[in-house]
């Protein structure tokens, strides 16, 4: 992407699409996309610890030792995964995977990832972040042909995988950026200690209404503004 301004952020957000084949699978799906420029990246710190600790406490109070997958939004995501052939007990929706770890402690990754993980857990919503400086072209959610490249690591070494035909994936012009809707991000566009421009995807299905989705986005924007004073944020609801 070119250097982002308010107008280019709006243009880029407007170019994002959800393929009709995905909507045919889940007509209730909506994506809230948020771009942020002027981020302050780096390792986990006091501020990201504050947000993660609060999310852990909230999750423990909400779920206790109960099965997190019975939460209506997570149950809907399990159903969506089954709809394109994934087995959610093996490849869990991202929010469920995080919530299962909240009791013992969420991972501390870096300050930006920690912040969006805290919002994901607090609002029970799949949420991912991408480095826009490594993004190529428009973001689109599609059902894969199986030929697309997905850059990852295997045994600590760079590797390229391919999604299964029909799998729901986020992609750009260079390949798949996130497999199985929100299960695993590629290495090419993941957030790092040098990320200053990012795009965040908040995934919602029927049990989460637009008001709750917007509230999650507002909370993420609040966290980003606290961690990166002066950050410029834009958003778009794709439905």
UniProtKB/TrEMBL annotation:
Pfam families to which the protein is assigned, alphabetical: B3_4 (PF03483)
Domain B3/B4 tRNA-binding: 75-229
MF (Gene Ontology): phenylalanine-tRNA ligase activity; RNA binding
SUPFAM superfamilies per UniProt: PheT/TilS domain
Matching InterPro entries: B3/B4_tRNA-bd (IPR005146), Phe-tRNA_synthase-like_B3/B4 (IPR020825)
PANTHER family associated with the record: CYTOPLASMIC PROTEIN (PTHR39209:SF2), PTHR39209
The protein, known as: Putative cytoplasmic protein
Protein species of origin: Streptomyces himastatinicus ATCC 53653
């Amino acid at each position: 992407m070119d250097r982002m301004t308010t107008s280019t952020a709006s243009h880029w957000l407007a170019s994002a699409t959800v393929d009709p084949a995905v909507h045919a699978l889940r007509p209730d799906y909506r994506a809230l996309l948020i771009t942020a420029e002027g981020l302050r990246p780096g390792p986990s710190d006091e501020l990201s610890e504050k947000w993660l600790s609060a999310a852990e406490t909230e999750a423990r109070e909400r779920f206790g030792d109960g099965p997190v997958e019975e939460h209506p939004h997570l149950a809907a995501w399990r159903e969506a995964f089954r709809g394109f052939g994934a087995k959610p007990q093996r490849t869990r929706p991202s929010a469920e995977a995080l919530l299962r770890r909240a009791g013992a402690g969420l991972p501390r990754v870096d300050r930006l990832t920690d912040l969006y993980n805290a919002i994901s857990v607090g609002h029970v919503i799949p949420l991912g972040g991408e480095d826009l400086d490594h993004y190529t072209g428009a973001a689109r959610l599609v059902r894969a042909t199986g030929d697309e490249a997905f850059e990852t690591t295997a045994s600590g070494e760079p590797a390229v995988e391919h999604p299964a035909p029909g799998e729901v994936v986020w992609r750009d012009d260079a390949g798949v950026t996130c497999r199985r809707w929100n299960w695993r991000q590629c290495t090419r566009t993941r957030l790092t200690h040098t990320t200053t421009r990012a795009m965040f995807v908040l995934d919602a299905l029927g049990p989460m209404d637009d008001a709750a989705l917007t509230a999650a986005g507002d909370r993420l924007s609040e966290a980003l503004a606290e961690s990166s004073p002066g950050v410029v944020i834009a958003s778009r609801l794709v439905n």
